[in-house]
Amino acid sequence: MQIAKVRGTVVSTQKEPTLRGVKLLLLQLVDEEGNFLPKYEVAADSVGAGVDEWVLVSRGSAARQIPGNEQRPLDAAVVAIIDTIHLEDRLIYSKKDQYR
User: Fold this and answer.
1) How far apart (Å, rounded) are the C-alpha atoms in residues 33 and 62?
2) Do residues 27 and 55 touch, judged by C-beta distance below 8 A?
3) Is the pLDDT of residue 5 over 80?
4) What is this structure's pTM?
């Protein structure tokens, strides 16, 4: 899994039939120090994440292990919304502090 921040949504009216009803999010990847990387990924959302939230994203075949995604052409799926990240003795991210 990788850490990412939800930067936006991706809407497509013409798509492969198995993707109908799937919410797609535009994610910016984050490194272990909480720095934003110049890499983006589109992922299916399975947890109801929103813009500006930090999330965990599963990539590759792991993204298709979520029930209902087995037959979908997915390379990435949001599998969790992050509350906090601690690295050693430092707080890297806190969802609660983000909105203060």
Assistant:
1) 24
2) yes
3) yes
4) 0.89
